[in-house]
Amino acid sequence: MSDNVKTIKNNGKTWCSIQEAAEILGVSYQTVRRRIMSGDLEVRREGRRYFIKLSDVEKLVEQMENVSKQSKIDQIISMEVELKLANERIKALQEQIEILKEQHAEQISTLRERIKELEADKGFLLEQLREKDRIIKELMPRALPRPKTGGGWLRRLFKRTKEEKTEDQRA
Question: What is the pLDDT of residues 86-112, one digit of tens each?
Answer without folding.
Answer: 999 999 999 999 998 888 888 888 999
